[in-house]
Amino acid sequence: MNCLRCNSPMYREDYDHVLETAGQGFRALHCMMCGDIVDPVILKNRRERAEPRGDRARLAVVTSLS
Ligand SMILES: [Zn+2]
User: Fold this and answer.
1) Which residues constitute the domain of residue 57?
2) Residue 10's CB: how many other CB atoms inside 10 A?
3) Which residues surround ligand 1, an ion (CB under 5 A)?
């Protein structure tokens, strides 16, 4: 698979994302040229909605201030 941003070859890497997978490792693709990372959650969100991570980020800021 090639990068969606710069169309360079992507490398497989194992990740462990605290928020998305709660300590469960998963395999993602990492572009060495532009640094873009595509994981199963990102691919799922892109199919379902355009910018789900933006909503989540704003919610996290509000929670930390309260
Ligand atoms: Zn790239």
Assistant:
1) 10-65
2) 20
3) 3, 5-6, 8, 31, 33-34, 36
